[in-house]
Design a protein that fits this description.
This protein has about 475 residues and is an alpha/beta fold. The chain contains 22 helices and ten strands. Among the domains are: about 230 residues, NagB/RpiA/CoA transferase-like (Rossmann fold); about 50 residues, no CATH class. Helix content is about 50%, strand content about 10%. The strands form two sheets. A six-stranded parallel beta sheet has the order 1-10-7-4-2-3, with helices on both faces.
Length: about 475
Amino acid sequence: MNAPTPIRFHANVRGVLANPVLRASFRGAMDFLMARRAAQFPAADAFEALRAQGEQIRQHSLARLPELLETLEANLQRNGIQVHWAETPLQACRLIIDLATRAGGDLVVKGKSMVSEEIELNHALEAAGIGALESDMGEYIVQLAGEKPSHIIMPAIHKTKEDIARLFADKVPGVDYTDSVDELIQIGRRVLRDKFRDTRVGLSGVNIAVAETGTLCLVENEGNGRMCTTVPDVHIAITGIEKVVARLEHVPPLLTLLTRSATGQAATTYFNWISGPRRAGELDGPREVHLVLLDNGRSGAYADIRLRATLQCIRCGACMNHCPVYARIGGHAYGTTYPGPIGQIVSPHMLGLEATQDLVTASSLCGACGEVCPVKIPIPDLLLQLRQQSQGNAAAPLLPGAGRGRKALQSISYQLFAWLYARPALYRLFSFVATRLRAFTPARQGVWTGSRAPLRPAARSLHERMKSRAGESCA
């Protein structure tokens, strides 16, 4: 694996922290989403029982993942859906480009798909002379702005209605400035409806793939997903290999957890069941359906029993909404397709630890993400595992780039402290000297003092204070 350029997380964060409007916008949005979710789970016991059920379903699926993928492939093919496997983003892009070219399409209209963002599909299509148009409103907005999504559920959450109004006036022909939300939605809808009629290829993501029946499940609120999967002659779905579940009965609990955790809805507006292409006598639907199953580091996470729980994720975004770090810096600061807590544990498998070494430490480990995860992914524990790997302190198997987070000065400092701490007399002498010379503590202490007061030894060490207290008690 060729490690990508290390993500400039700290530089990105500084830029966001200097933008008070963006910070206030994110804080308000996260508070709103947290309140919506809380209203859907008023009974803590019922929520915990549902979480336990979701966790069991996902763990059951992962325990049988190779077998379920084979069953899924066989049943999809029996239903007339063609299955393609891609180990890398490059392979996935080539497969989709070949399918679009074979269909004679010069435009791919896309429903919401984070996996297509993961593989940089839009850029690959454009390089091949094929247009790509996002039909999800949030994705359409960030595409017009030349940006990436800042949230996996609400891609344009960082945009105000005034931002969107200016963007539409600048980028959409014949549109005047309006900051009416209803009018902006209608503008986007008119543009996209015309494209649906003209395109031959539609692309979507997959929320859940059912091995038992060979069914692809797609959750959405806008209807664009249903348009992408029924109007064009060719429907291409793409998903990660971890999205499979064993049986149809496993879908309702996961669906209940997904919609309530993501947007605070009791039920999503549209739930699409895709079980094959158009059949004889049917009036709509694609004539071909393809599924691209992507690995991109997922099999590595699966192979490591310590990190396998990473693959339980149902992509609801609740961990982001409750994360005190994400709420202050937003998604773009992370520099990855999947931001926030879930991105911190998923991205190292896709990009390697060298590129993501700063992300695994970009957490306060407060535990909020683990507490709200609807399928009980122990995100703080996984972050600690990844930190150990980044420092080169974990047992094999190791991710690519393991050990690259270790700094020479940091390593020497810990070795010196270990040597000193193992020698009580020298340690007491060091403590005595440090407390007496505390006035000479440097005011600037690297990254620490960028946002905190400098560390300064106390006037007396704890040992001295306890010894003094003991003396006073005896007296």
